[in-house]
Amino acid sequence: MVLAYAGRPVRTALEIGAGTGKATRLFARPGTVVTATDPDGAMLAELRKHVPADVKTVRAAFEDLPTGQRHDLVFAAAALHWTSPQGRWSRMAALVEPGGVFASFGGPFKPADPAVEETVRAARAPFLASDEIPSPDGTPEGHAMQWPGTELQRSDGFDDVRQCVIERRVTVSAADYVGHLSTVSAYLELPVAVRAQVYDHIERALPDTVELFADIIVHLARRRQDAAGAG
Prior knowledge:
Shape: globular
Mean pLDDT: 94
Largest sheet: 7 strands, mixed
Structural class: alpha/beta
Strand order of the largest sheet: 3-2-1-4-5-10-7
Number of domains: 1
Strand content: 25-35%
CATH class: Alpha Beta
CATH superfamily: Vaccinia Virus protein VP39
Number of helices: 9
Distance between the termini: 25 Å
CATH architecture: 3-Layer(aba) Sandwich
């Protein structure tokens, strides 16, 4: 979907918040040089085990990336909400070639069975009231255009903003579901000891497998040809 939207060869791609490289692997294909960035060195070390040798890695937060080199594609997979809102889109525009593409994708994994969802809520409640990721700009759930599309529409650096939903249903083990929760910011912000407790409570309360709503929400935008990096 991203490459079709680009409509031209994507020779260089820059990933924001690559983590262990699940999305990196999708774009690391012949003809595309991917630079995967993340502030966590341990994450990048794990990524290196799973990607082609020509993938470049840079240990840096988005805010610390040099803006002297532009790319055909800049993308973020479930990581954009970790970036600072201050100057986010002017910095992003400075990383993308005019006419190039920015893409963001991700979405919540939610139990498809309401009874299982209630089980998770009850197990989590003594430690955490909610594990929802609030919209960074306050856009309500169910709004026609979700964040970050809302911010992209207001940006001077990008146009042709699109939102697409890829519907998915997946079944995972209880352990894998808890592993997913361990990447969610609400849990990561808890003290380490508390995190271990809540993960244990949730896993023990779950059935062996969990069916999930796992839709992927994709946001696409094109770097304006006449933009000067403002946004």
